[in-house]
Amino acid sequence: MEEYFSAVHKMEQTVMFPSLLQGVSLEGKEDTSDSGSEEKDLYEYYMLLKSIKLVVEGGLLPRSHQTSLVSEEEVHEDEDLEGFFHYHVSSLYRILTQLTRRANAVTSKYNEIMGQINGNEKRLSF
Hints:
Blueprint: H1 2-14, H2 42-58, H3 69-77, H4 81-125
Helix pairs in contact: 1-2, 1-4, 2-4
């Protein structure tokens, strides 16, 4: 989890102008096999990663705000608590690994964009 927070923090510190990410795709920087990923640009990933970080830091909503599916899950959870715990923790780590890669990809692409902008400014100043 620390890797995820570190990657998102680095992304937040690096990306000073998030609007530069609008309309920019990952362009092979990341495995985009998950559904719908081709449709998102880096700005959407940037905003998503920041909002997920807030949820992870702040915790879940109180139970009264969650859907009724929670009570249905609780009935089945008593059967194998250790198994459910292992399943959910491993799923969480898989998701955090994917999010960490996305944050690193956004940071890398932003640095690439800024390098191109700085290179163009140097050529114009001569």
